[in-house]
Design a protein that fits this description.
- It is a single chain.
- By secondary structure, the protein is an alpha+beta fold.
- It has 3 helices and 4 strands, in the order ααββββα.
- The protein starts with a helix and ends with a helix.
Amino acid sequence: MQACVDKVKSIINDRSLLLVDKLTKISEVLSEHLNARIYFCGIRGKRWSFVAGSGDVLSGSHRIRLSETWGLISDRELKQDQFIRLIISMIREMLTD
Protein backbone atom coordinates (compact mmCIF):
# COMPACT_ATOMS: atom_id res chain seq x y z
CA MET A 1 0.00 0.00 0.00
CA GLN A 2 3.01 2.29 0.47
CA ALA A 3 3.46 2.19 -3.33
CA CYS A 4 -0.06 3.60 -3.69
CA VAL A 5 0.73 6.42 -1.25
CA ASP A 6 3.92 7.22 -3.18
CA LYS A 7 2.07 7.30 -6.52
CA VAL A 8 -0.63 9.60 -5.16
CA LYS A 9 2.02 11.91 -3.66
CA SER A 10 3.82 12.03 -7.00
CA ILE A 11 0.62 12.96 -8.85
CA ILE A 12 -0.23 15.66 -6.31
CA ASN A 13 3.25 17.17 -6.64
CA ASP A 14 3.21 17.16 -10.46
CA ARG A 15 2.84 20.87 -11.27
CA SER A 16 2.30 20.17 -14.97
CA LEU A 17 -1.12 18.59 -14.34
CA LEU A 18 -4.40 20.46 -14.00
CA LEU A 19 -6.55 19.65 -10.96
CA VAL A 20 -9.03 17.52 -12.91
CA ASP A 21 -6.13 15.54 -14.42
CA LYS A 22 -4.67 14.96 -10.96
CA LEU A 23 -8.03 13.74 -9.67
CA THR A 24 -8.42 11.41 -12.67
CA LYS A 25 -4.96 9.91 -12.17
CA ILE A 26 -5.47 9.57 -8.42
CA SER A 27 -8.78 7.77 -9.00
CA GLU A 28 -7.03 5.36 -11.38
CA VAL A 29 -4.30 4.59 -8.84
CA LEU A 30 -6.80 4.12 -6.00
CA SER A 31 -9.09 2.00 -8.16
CA GLU A 32 -6.20 -0.30 -9.04
CA HIS A 33 -4.89 -0.66 -5.49
CA LEU A 34 -8.24 -0.83 -3.70
CA ASN A 35 -10.18 -2.83 -6.28
CA ALA A 36 -12.95 -0.23 -6.19
CA ARG A 37 -14.43 2.42 -8.46
CA ILE A 38 -13.44 5.87 -7.23
CA TYR A 39 -15.08 9.15 -8.20
CA PHE A 40 -14.35 12.74 -7.22
CA CYS A 41 -17.32 15.06 -7.02
CA GLY A 42 -17.99 18.72 -6.54
CA ILE A 43 -20.47 19.35 -3.75
CA ARG A 44 -23.10 22.04 -4.02
CA GLY A 45 -25.62 21.80 -1.21
CA LYS A 46 -26.95 18.25 -1.19
CA ARG A 47 -25.87 17.54 -4.78
CA TRP A 48 -22.66 15.63 -5.52
CA SER A 49 -21.67 16.17 -9.16
CA PHE A 50 -19.14 14.01 -11.00
CA VAL A 51 -15.83 15.74 -11.80
CA ALA A 52 -13.33 12.90 -12.35
CA GLY A 53 -12.95 9.20 -11.74
CA SER A 54 -13.50 5.63 -12.79
CA GLY A 55 -15.81 6.39 -15.69
CA ASP A 56 -18.49 8.94 -16.31
CA VAL A 57 -21.38 7.13 -14.60
CA LEU A 58 -21.39 7.10 -10.82
CA SER A 59 -22.00 3.69 -9.35
CA GLY A 60 -21.25 3.98 -5.68
CA SER A 61 -22.91 4.75 -2.42
CA HIS A 62 -19.98 5.15 -0.03
CA ARG A 63 -19.19 8.84 0.41
CA ILE A 64 -16.29 10.63 2.03
CA ARG A 65 -16.56 14.40 2.35
CA LEU A 66 -13.13 15.85 1.61
CA SER A 67 -14.06 19.50 2.12
CA GLU A 68 -17.10 21.76 1.93
CA THR A 69 -16.96 21.61 -1.87
CA TRP A 70 -15.31 18.26 -2.64
CA GLY A 71 -16.20 14.63 -2.02
CA LEU A 72 -15.13 11.11 -2.94
CA ILE A 73 -17.56 8.33 -3.82
CA SER A 74 -16.64 4.65 -3.95
CA ASP A 75 -18.61 1.61 -5.01
CA ARG A 76 -17.50 -0.15 -1.86
CA GLU A 77 -16.60 0.87 1.67
CA LEU A 78 -12.92 1.75 1.98
CA LYS A 79 -11.10 0.25 4.92
CA GLN A 80 -10.00 3.25 6.98
CA ASP A 81 -6.45 2.07 7.68
CA GLN A 82 -3.42 4.33 8.10
CA PHE A 83 -2.71 4.39 4.36
CA ILE A 84 -6.23 5.43 3.37
CA ARG A 85 -6.26 8.11 6.06
CA LEU A 86 -2.91 9.42 4.80
CA ILE A 87 -4.07 9.45 1.17
CA ILE A 88 -7.31 11.22 2.08
CA SER A 89 -5.34 13.77 4.09
CA MET A 90 -3.02 14.45 1.12
CA ILE A 91 -6.00 14.85 -1.23
CA ARG A 92 -7.74 17.21 1.22
CA GLU A 93 -4.61 19.34 1.43
CA MET A 94 -4.33 19.47 -2.37
CA LEU A 95 -7.97 20.55 -2.71
CA THR A 96 -7.66 23.33 -0.12
CA ASP A 97 -4.48 24.89 -1.56
